[in-house]
Please model this.
Amino acid sequence: MSASASWSYTAKATHWPLLGRDDWSGQNTYGPPVVFYCDYKAEAVRSADAGGTSPQTGVELALRQVLYTEYAAVKQGDYVLIGESAEADPIAAGAAEVRTVVRDADTFDRIADDYRILT
Model:
């Protein structure tokens, strides 16, 4: 963990990775919960996803929360929860689906990139 991340990412969050979708039942399957360090905020903005050939043609999404972290394993379709959880089912735990993940440079230390996880 970079020096700047060690003092700023002091909250904990839980990540459930999307493993796949059962073709018969239509149910998604998720990996076991993983706790990671982060910081977060609630944000009322609107953003276009990459659904079309240009940013203007994507589906508009209302983003509920933004998590800041060096934890690089989170991908679109996974679930995250602010706080710690051992619950196997992310929906039952109250987690939110990850809509997009933005990678930012580690400007100060150049040890590990930072990520913005948007739900």
Remarks:
- The mean pLDDT is 85.
